[in-house]
Amino acid sequence: xxxxxxxxxxxxxxxxxxxxxxxxxxxxxxxxxxxxxxxxxxxxxxxxxxxxxxxxxxxxxxxxxxxxxxxxxxxxxxxxxxxxxxxxxxxxxxxxxxxxxxxxxxxxxxxxxxxxxxxxxxxxxxxxxxxxxxxxxxxxxxxxxxxxxxxxxxxxxxxxxxxxxxxxxxxxxxxxxxxxxxxxxxxxxxxxxxxxxxxxxxxxxxxxxxxxxxxxxxxxxxxxxxxxxxxxxxxxxxxxxxxxxxxxxxxxxxxxxxxxxxxxxxxxxxxxxxxxxxxxxxxxxxxxxxxxxxxxxxxxxxxxxxxxxxxxxxxxxxxxxxxxxxxxxxxxxxxxxxxxxxxxxxxxxxxxxxxxxxxxxxxxxxxxxxxxxxxxxxxxxxxxxxxxxxxxxxxxxxxxxxxxxxxxxxxxxxxxxxxxxxxxxxxxxxxxxxxxxxxxxxxxxxxxxxxxxxxxxxxxxxxxxxxxxxxxxxxxxx
Length: 478
Fold this sequence. Notes:
Blueprint: E1 2-7, E2 11-17, E3 23-30, E4 42-43, H1 45-58, H2 61-64, E5 69-74, E6 80-82, E7 92-93, H3 101-108, H4 111-117, H5 126-136, H6 138-143, E8 146-148, H7 150-159, E9 163-165, H8 166-169, E10 175-176, E11 181-182, H9 184-189, E12 199-201, E13 206-209, H10 212-218, E14 225-227, E15 230-231, H11 232-239, E16 247-252, E17 256-262, E18 274-277, E19 284-290, H12 294-304, H13 308-313, E20 325-327, E21 345-347, H14 355-379, E22 386-390, H15 397-407, E23 411-414, H16 421-434, E24 446-450, H17 457-474
Parallel strand pairs: 1-5, 5-15, 9-12, 16-22, 22-23
Antiparallel strand pairs: 1-2, 2-3, 4-7, 6-8, 10-11, 13-14, 16-17, 17-19, 18-19, 20-21, 23-24
Helix pairs in contact: 1-7, 3-5, 11-16, 12-14, 14-15
């Protein structure tokens, strides 16, 4: 048996799979987010441990008795600060915390950060948070001994070791992403050193072994290896088998992600594409990230007084984009705009605009934002030849048909099942425990594939051009 643990923002999930990668059991425990003031987002690391204990207790003890490996996946960018005795100094500052926007801008103005890390320094990344702590909580900064990412604090509890892996570390703004090593220059620019950082390994390597007391407590064998694991999107890439150049997945969750695997390092920070290490040695990945995907549809559903499922249930066959346009920037945008101030808008409303027309416009707006991500990835040389769809939004055939047509790429739907971060982490556990490699990260069986509607390709090209014109027109409006 192999256990994958995925530490998300709203909960921790564990899945057990057997040697044939068949799901044996799963369990989850909820988490809450603290928001003590506007723009802040925090969690207590002790809550992560309590959630892990709850998941272990809920999994079948008989299955755990045959455990051979553990893998970790987790929310990225969180700043978990420890003193020299591994005591937590303050609540962890999470990925969606924006308090360090000014510090991020100052770091990003230093050309070394983009040149070495390969990425813009976004406010949600880890490094600017430490600059904020030094300025606003100097006593805590003086006591700081180690900075861990969320899943790596869970690893510390599991193994007693301070270890990180490449895919998660790439989102800190301290990693030399091409060399796959901490950058002494970038650490020094934030008044830190390697001594403050965990040891780095690859995601498929053994990071340490389960503590004997924990194993005995939950009925697990002695010296179970714990894999390096991956950041949540990289682990999801392992889970859906997106590990080779040309493979990609689009995730239609609260936010939207266009994730493409790369066999080389091709950064272009100016595009606002995230260029990170993958969770496997010698591979990288790129992501275009939009901040509102199903979030935009759910927002409109609340406005319309209907459920998202009702809005999308009877849209019929795909239609050409109309005059009504929706720009899905409810909370700013990452790729390709890197604009925290831009906000959403409907444009082209008229007397004929009804609920169905507006629903199509919302789906088209998110679709065109994903096309912007595809174009940004293409500008770096990344080509997508196969695209999988995952996430709640993938239940809408209309939406997937729009994406396939706008991108000119078939979109495949996996058979029902869980292929997310926890499953990817369990696959990484197999690799660490057995020495297996990327060959076990196979693509899931495909239920069906939605092809582009070639008769509407030109109409979607023209719709995207109108979308971009509207986007550029509203930038700077407040």
